[in-house]
Amino acid sequence: MKAFLLSHNIGQKHIDLFKKIIGQPKVSKALFITTAAVPYGFDPKPEWLSESLESMSQFAETVDETSLEAGEYMPNDLSQYDFIFVSGGNTFYLAYRLAKIGLDKKIKEYINNEGVFSGSSAGSIILMDSIEHFVPADDPSKAPKIYSGLGLIDFAVIPHAKSEKYGLVMDKIAEKYKAEGIDVIPIDDNQVLVINNGNKEII
Asked: pTM of the full predicted structure?
């Protein structure tokens, strides 16, 4: 697995790290999935989404952006993408929508076939199996039905560690996973968790 997990949106400081993990200065095509932000609305578009899209253009010639909602672009063949980025937002809605349209299975296949994946906040959490303990941070009522995550990692990613807004909530969430014997990896808003073929490093 090659993954690049953040708490916040892609920032300028992350660009060189992105280029390192994708193995080249610029890829041909990337997919930007904004599904988790749907409960927040896109009118106006959240500034953090625009910032991430602008950053992505620095290492991808073409970026296909989609919320995966009805009428939006639905990617069927993920193998065409050199890189997939999943934005932050509501983790429960993200899990619901991916499962509803069957893209959860396609993303898992993409990652297992050595596709490069990145996520921010909810987009990072979605790699886990059980996401139920994130209820204090995300409203589960935003999802018509509750689904688990992708189940591709066996530890808990805890984004926004030590942040002024979410730090205490995330500490409590982390304790719940620890109580279940699950390893916890907290990342703050300036850090990146890089997973490269079994090796994990916080930068």
From this structure: 0.94
